[in-house]
Write a structure and sequence with these properties.
The structure is a single chain. Helix 2 crosses helix 4. The radius of gyration is 21 Å and the shape is elongated. The longest helix is centred in the first third of the chain and has 16 residues. It has two domains: 91 residues, Gyrase A, domain 2 (2-Layer Sandwich); 139 residues, Cyclophilin-like (Cyclophilin, Beta Barrel). With 246 residues, the protein is of the alpha+beta class.
Length: 246
């Protein structure tokens, strides 16, 4: 499988599978992630999947130690860089990848109370497209979304697959504080704010679920490669669920 591999600083390597945001390319990303789970590189600290790439962070000393062995470390370490060792391993692994697009992803249902003070931009999104607010709710909750990556804030999922009929630009002026659980739209993506943070996405609802749970393993509810289905709930259900989560 042809890939591009380049360094990110002196202790990370990026393996790039393409330049497009689509399920097929992301399937290659997740196939590589699965292989790294099965065959972790000696000296690998962690890997971070993104839309079309994976960044592998590594300990340079451990890479040298694993590659050359204790007795040859001092003599031969200057012959090759840690990045060259890691990139060679990653390229070999990429050559053994099988198509991962047929894998059935884990689907996670996310309850959402749309509109009102929990979704202050729902009417803005509806007006932008000449729709009724309920139309936006029906369209948004009617789709299934792929978690392409986690980023921006701990547990923030970038979800692809938003229908063009409700794709809406970010707000011109970002909010200084957005409550945790807020569900937003930005262009052709939708996402969920896991913690209170500034942001400029159009807020259409809120979930009572906690997406970032630092005391648990894993600490995030969602992970790259999963799919999300939004389920509309009433304000009463939201308040009751919120109380139970506490």
């Amino acid at each position: 499988m042809p890939v591009d591999i380049y360094p990110l600083g002196d202790s990370a390597a990026v393996i790039q599978f393409g330049n497009t945001i689509d399920p097929k390319t992301h399937g290659k990303v997740m196939a590589m992630a699965a292989l790294l789970d099965e065959e972790p590189l000696p000296g690998m600290i962690e890997y971070v999947p993104a839309f079309a790439s994976i960044t592998v962070f590594f300990d340079s000393f451990q890479i040298f130690r694993a590659h050359f062995g204790k007795t040859r470390l001092n003599r031969d370490a200057g012959m090759v860089s840690p990045f060259e060792i890691v990139s060679g391993c990653l390229r070999e692994m990429a050559g053994r990848l099988v198509d991962n697009t047929e894998r059935e992803p884990l689907r996670v249902e996310i309850p959402v109370c749309y509109g009102g003070d929990l979704g202050p931009d729902l009417e803005t999104v509806a007006d932008y497209h000449g729709l009724k607010p309920q139309d936006v709710v029906d369209i948004h909750s009617g789709g299934e979304y792929l978690v392409y990556m986690i980023g921006f804030a701990p547990g923030f999922p970038y979800l692809g697959g938003l229908p063009e009929s409700i794709a809406t630009p970010r707000r011109k002026t970002p909010r200084l504080s957005i409550p945790a659980g807020s569900v937003g739209i930005a262009g052709r993506q939708t996402g969920i704010y896991p913690i209170e943070t500034p942001g400029g996405w159009q807020l259409i609802g809120r979930t009572p679920l906690r997406l970032f749970r630092p005391g648990q393993d894993p600490p995030t509810l969602l992970r790259a490669g999963q799919t999300v289905k939004f389920v509309p709930i009433s304000r009463e259900e939201f308040d009751r669920w919120k109380d139970e989560v506490r």
